[in-house]
From TrEMBL:
Compartment list: Cell inner membrane
PANTHER family: SPERMIDINE/PUTRESCINE IMPORT ATP-BINDING PROTEIN POTA, SPERMIDINE_PUTRESCINE IMPORT ATP-BINDING PROTEIN POTA
Descriptive protein name: ABC transporter ATP-binding protein
Record keywords: ATP-binding, Nucleotide-binding, Transport
Molecular functions (GO terms): ABC-type transporter activity; ATP binding; ATP hydrolysis activity
Topological relation to the membrane, as annotated: Peripheral membrane protein
Species per Swiss-Prot/TrEMBL record: Pseudorhizobium pelagicum
Entry keyword annotation includes Nuclease: no
Amino acid sequence: MAPLILHALEKRFGPGAPAVRDLSLTVRDGRFLALLGPSGCGKTTVLRMIAGFEQPTDGSILLGERLLADAATMVPPERRNMAMVFQSYALWPHMTVAENVGYPLKVRKVDRERARQKVCEALAAVRLEAYADRRPAALSGGQRQRVALARCLVTEPDVVLLDEPLANLDRHLRQEMEETFREFHARSGATMIYVTHDQSEAMALATDVAVMSEGRLLQMASPEEIYARPEGLVVGGLVGQGSILSLRLPPGSGRLLDWPRLRDAFQGTEEGLMPADVLVRPQDVVLDATGLAARVTSSFFEGERYALRLELANGQSLRAFSRQPVRAGDTTSVVLASGWRL
Ligand code: ADP
Ligand code: MG
């Protein structure tokens, strides 16, 4: 399949700030893109424009060379060969699982024997073969979600669009479903676009993460890249755990900062220093007697380790981990092995 291209996409619902503005990105065939951002930043609007439920006010959407939508063009949803899975599963309660999954084929008047076979395949892909004759009411939330996924699979869409599909599930089930999505993606080879406000979900699932804020795209990269090299305060604050420190650095310090530079930044009193926001990940905060004095303000045992909040002498707060028991109120000393200037 050809790449899906969003070019300078904009959507206005009325006067005031547009819901989506100047958004450009390309999703290559078979990728799994997570569209990540806080509630209200325009994620659903982007997905609905891709699906064909909303028309862009400006910009364009293309599948390879084929124009799907711009301010003057609107290919209807049923002619885009995409499938959208909604947060509410929208299953027919009076139909069995197999009938629900087969419904899109019935609408398309697919031959019965062929339809039966495709339903079997789709149910196998989500491991629900044994539930074909049940009704949705007799299924758990996770199983219903899998039926919805199977139903979108039978039409063999080029692009699968998912809008916060796990938002209604409890934590245990979410983890199980994350596994299902990864497997589904690997088996089907479909291009997937997955909307979520949950950064750990985005990181765990996707091959690419696009971070949005206030209708704009801030950064798109692999989960590893976004985590290691976030662009700016918003992405840095949204992705992964960490602390953002206000420091003063000499001009030309670079973005990746080592301990000597960070130590100098704390002690820095020289002329000409520039204010900088520096992201420090908890695993880069090492309890070490040669470092900066710190006070433990809180300590939670997480099972594998203690999650700490520390306060430095200058009053700034820092997250850290420790394998050894540490108690709130303890004094300690830390080395910051690495920092990233936002
Ligand atoms: P998200 O999915 O990231 O939570 P949405 O795309 O749903 O964000 O919404 C982005 C903005 O557009 C919000 O301010 C929302 O109120 C507005 N919006 C979304 N859909 C409509 C609509 N149909 N009419 C008017 N405003 C809308
Ligand atoms: Mg939404």
